[in-house]
Design brief:
Structural class: mainly beta
Radius of gyration: 19 Å
Largest sheet: 21 strands, parallel
Order of helices and strands: EEEEEEEEEEEEEEEEEEEEEEEEEEE
Distance between the termini: 55 Å
Shape: globular
Strand content: over 45%
Helix content: under 10%
Number of helices: 0
Amino acid sequence: VGVTNSPNFATRNNTRNLRVYGNIVLNSTVDFSGFIGRIVLRGTGAVNYTFDTDGVSLASMSSLRIVAAADATYSLINNDLNVSEIDLRRGTLDLNTQDITCETFNATVGNNVRAIDFSSQKMTITGSGATNVFALESTDQRITFLNTSTSTIEFTGAGQVVALFGSRNIDIPNLIFTNATDIDFSTSFDGTERTVAFNDITINTDGTTFDIDNAINTGLRKTYGNVSLPNTCTFNFYHANGTAYGTLSSRVNGTLTTGT
């Protein structure tokens, strides 16, 4: 899809899909404000596709769904991406030096190979509430995060923030919580002992409660980099399921800094 003029994209309801089997190249005069449907990226084959919005906001649409071939990649170029939901089902999303903002991130559907290359960039999650704003859980999940050590996921939602980190070995980027006061993270134990490796975690709001696997002995082993907690913060480390990890299931490899 290549747009060189100034069309209006609009849908009557959020059940309409715009399916793209190749590149998306827009220009800044395109109007997507009336598009409340879903863009579905379905590139085929081992191809690096381009997703170029030229700064056009896609925040009105219901979802950006990626169901490309397992060895296909969609790379962001030319301005950051702002969408309501990212639904990653198959293929790779490469941030490619661009930041990305979404209300929710979902990788729970199916057991296809999928990945995000963070490219040392930032993903901002704006959602909050009792449902998951970030979810990796799926049956026989096969998801990979690339280039996470200098990348960041910032959760800007206020109040409660809930997330699932799945049942596989995975490296999580640095996490920042700007406004949350009740943080609930969980992993899932499926009979095989694995490790979720968090990088640095920073919580900015005094009085925050942060629970990871609050149902004891139900999750995976967790390791952490540097952890920075504000004043009067409660941080609950819970053990993993199984016998091999024992009390080592929660381990801070860096510096634990607490407030008063």
